[in-house]
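Two folds, back to back.
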Amino acid sequence: MIKRILSIIVISLFAYMLYLLVSGWEPGKELNSLAANYVGREPAELGAPNVVTAIVVTYRGLDTLGEVTVLFLAASGVGLFLHLSGKSGKNDRAKKKREASEILRTGATMLLAPIVMFGTYIFINGHLSPGGGFQGGAVIASGLLLLFVTFPSYRTKYSALSAVESFSGAFYVIVGLFGFLLAGGFLDNRFLPLGSYGQVLSAGAIPVIYTLIGLKVGTELTGILEHMKGSSE
């Protein structure tokens, strides 16, 4: 009874705090000075219609490199942990797997290609519209998840995943160094021509950077799903 009373009190306090925040909130009518500075100078400097992309990939490119590194370390840690736990909990009993229905198998087979194409579209057009490498890579990984769920015995080529992940990560750093050597700083996209504003081949190296991020994120998340599926069998 006491625990329930304490829970109700805590929830009520949080609800009151949320009410104070929401009741006093007013939508901003204009950009603050920092945001206005980015919005004003970015089209001429970097040539990306999506200002968020320009900020994430170029203005704070080192931070994005850190995020990609953290994802790589997380994927490696999950793979190692599941590999070790799978060894320690291994048994000889064969588990009978329930076969997916024909509708699910047909749907998964037909949807895989459009899902991969949509994920590719998201990171290739990340400098023009909402989206980017992280989102596109996650969409591609969701297509592989659909295959894993539908076909339990399906296996990806781990060597191919590892090769793509390693290439995209290494080339991402190389592109960043090109920006440092040939332009204004690490991951500066202007070492390639900015092109025509609003076109796919524009904004310098940003489409290349987002493509590399999308491939890296997609392969890493797929690797995590592969390890998780293997540990559950």
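---
second:
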Amino acid sequence: MNSKKGQAAAEYLVTYGWALLLLVAVIAIILSTGIFNPSYFISEECVLQPDIACTGYQMYRMGGDQDAILMIGVENRLGYDMKLDNVKITTNDLGVAGEKVWGPQQGVPVVLRQGDNVTLRYVITGEKQPAVDSMQRMRVELTYYSCAREVNPDCVANAEYLHTVAGRITVRVAKG
């Protein structure tokens, strides 16, 4: 009778042992997919303000020691023309250690008519380049002059008509 108790205990342990082994295997497979990687839960975004839209954005590296390139599309939806004065990107530990301001942007100032787009291009130079598939966060500061007919019909660059918009970009670095 004692041998049957030992056999029952062994069968119990073997049955639950296989179940636990299967559970460990399933958890290992799930972890290997990268679902629990924090960057998996961070969504990409480009936020300025509703009337000055970020129509597209991308950061990519060509590979090797090449610098990263950040492209941002900005559209004027203000209802009047604007003179884009400056667009600065502020990064932390990207390209160089610590905080770095990239800008002023070449090709700016430019007058953007209502509904027009402009694509801004930044080359992130330095020793430290972002890894492909890494998430990068940046602050954006856009300054412009209002060219509304009621206020500034000649689109004069006067400090009285200068406005600043702040926003943020979160982007995954792609391979170019």
